[in-house]
Amino acid sequence: MSLDVAYISEDVYFSMFYLALSNDKLEVLSMLIGETKEEKGVKSVHVYTMVIPLRLTSKHDRVEASPEQLFEAVTEAEKLSKLYNRELRVIGWFHSHPHITVWPSDVGEIAKQY
């Protein structure tokens, strides 16, 4: 699904901002929880909260999430769905690039070669 607009709650925006500033040597990661909507032909995503997994790698220029951590984020989204009677799910992730370019890294391209 292509999107026309993304909305991030103020709380999540500032949480991502402070998470990124929390460590200027290592990349940080959070999984975003929210919902997608389509109204009047406009496709949007709404981010309401996030889950911050523990780091799994000691490499400063990457972050990883285990299947168990992803499962925990999915479980959190399901709990919130029941609590708020909305169809919430893990809709993406955020990660930082401390002291490196904002452009996508070639890590994925290197992995595809093997």
Automatic annotation (TrEMBL):
It holds the Pfam family JAB. Transmembrane segments: none annotated. Residues 6-114 form the MPN domain. One of its GO terms (molecular function) is metallopeptidase activity. It comes from the Eukaryota. SUPFAM superfamilies: JAB1/MPN domain. PANTHER family: EUKARYOTIC TRANSLATION INITIATION FACTOR 3 -RELATED. This is Lys-63-specific deubiquitinase BRCC36-like. It comes from Diaphorina citri (Asian citrus psyllid).
